[in-house]
Amino acid sequence: MTDPMTVAVATAMAGKAVEVAGEPVRAAVAELSRRVRERFRGRPSAEEALARASGDPAPERIETLASAIEYLMAEDTEFGAEARNLWNQAQTNAAATNDGVVNVLNGQAGRMIQLRDVHGDLNIG
């Protein structure tokens, strides 16, 4: 199963609008898309996955492109770490506007609670 970062990048690379939380994440997706395109050059299967998704951004083609991105990141671990760092930093810098809330969770959590504007008693347990 592909992760949200590779799906967002694959979707953007295929030319579809990507819904992400805030300008820092949009900028990171654009930058990651540019870097991945550069790394795809000379890789026929990756270039084909990109061409097919760009020509017809159907979900299964986006998924194939996301898998090609994951393969690239696994093969070039330095690039993979750099890409994940950029993604995580962008998510951390995401800001809420218009009384919105941004929740950033990197890693895994058994349970997580997000609250805003609690007036009165609160018992969790």
Task: Walk me through this protein's architecture.
The chain is an all-alpha fold. It has one domain (4-92). Helices cover 58% and strands 0% of the residues. The chain is built from five helices and no strands. The chain has helices at 4-13, 23-40, 44-55, 59-75, 77-92. The longest helix is centred in the first third of the chain and has 18 residues, at 23-40. The mean pLDDT is 82.
Number of discrete domains: 1
Tell me what portion of residues adopts beta-strand conformation. Answer: under 5%
> Which secondary-structure class do the elements indicate?
mainly alpha
- What is the average of the pLDDT values? 82
Number of helical segments with 4 or more residues: 5
Share of residues in helices: 55-70%
Q: End-to-end span in angstroms?
A: 33 Å
How do the SSEs run, as a string of H and E?
Answer: HHHHH
The number of distinct β-strands equals: 0
State the shape.
elongated
Low-pLDDT residue spans: none
Rg is 17 Å
Please summarize the sheet with the most strands: none
Give a topology summary.
Layout (H helix, E strand, L loop, with lengths): L3 H10 L9 H18 L3 H12 L3 H17 L1 H16 L33
Helix pairs in contact: 1-2, 1-4, 2-5, 3-4, 4-5
Précis, in short:
With 125 residues, the chain is an all-alpha fold. The protein is built from 5 helices and no strands.
